[in-house]
Amino acid sequence: MLEEISTRAPKSADKDKYKQQLQGIVAEISDLQNLLFAENKHAILVVIQGMDASGKDGLIRDVFGGINPQGVQVHSFKAPTPEELEHDFLWRIHQRTPAKGMINVFNRSHYEDVLITRVHGWVDDATAKKRMAAINHFEKLLVEHNNTHILKLYLHVSKKEQLERLKERMSIPEKMWKYNENDFVESQLWDKYMMYYEEVLRQCDAPPWHVIPSDQNWYKSHVVAVLLRDTLRKLKMQYPGMKK
Fold it and tell me: Is 233 helix (H, G, I), strand (E, B) or coil?
């Protein structure tokens, strides 16, 4: 499935044009976010998943960096703390979901609990399937009971591009802080990750996943910005009147 989807921009895509358009799209997103905050009827959850070096941090900077920080929260999910391990696997996630009027961005997410855990054999297939069912119910709860609109993004990067980016972290001073020796170890498990990612894309498809070609950062950011802008536009929001 994923191997049949290109990781690169279409040949017709104009890099300079797309980069210029991005500025205007982000400006519109900023205006729409202000309206979202003022109306206080909807919430937006952006879930970003992808292999190491797929460009999650850069995407967040490009698309969300120009938005009022009062209306956007970014959460990164690392290894669970001892307190978090005392609860169900979604406990720490639920605390970070957006309130009405907010855009929350997950840099990695609840899907790590059915991805890396399976790759390393920390949970068996039966447990993973139960967790995916729980995730589906959880996301349905957010949609139906808090008017949350969930945008799920898989950053689709090629194995070759990932390796080049990981090597850059060893040679480019501005990127050295990202270097983690374990990233190269994880990259050797590529096929396993792809197998489990494909299952997640199939089994947890409501709301649907968007597979974003991510070998070229300028194209990835443009595609995601358009998706977010269009999601906000469809809400048909209006500024509330003066309070009496």
Answer: helix
Q: Domain 17-233, CATH 3.40.190.10 — does that match?
A: no
The fraction of the chain above a pLDDT of 70, given in percent, is 100
Question: Do residues 135 and 90 lie in contact, with contact meaning Cβ atoms separated by under 8 Å?
Answer: yes
- What does the alpha-carbon distance between residue 208 and residue 175 come to, in Å, rounded to a whole number? 33
Q: How far apart are CA 110 and CA 108, in angstroms?
A: 7
Over residues 127-149, mean pLDDT: 98
pLDDT confidence bin for 9, thresholds 50/70/90: very high
Three-class secondary structure of residue 5 per DSSP: coil
Domain boundaries, the chain: 17-233
What's the chain's average pLDDT? 96
Inter-helix orientation angle 56-64/15-39, to 10°:
70
Asked if 53 and 165 count as a contact pair (C-beta separation under 8 A), the reply is yes
- Torsion sign, CA atoms 169, 173, 178, 180: positive
CB neighbourhood size of 143 (10 A): 16
Of 106, 124, 197, 117, give the one whose Cα is nearest residue 159.
Answer: 197
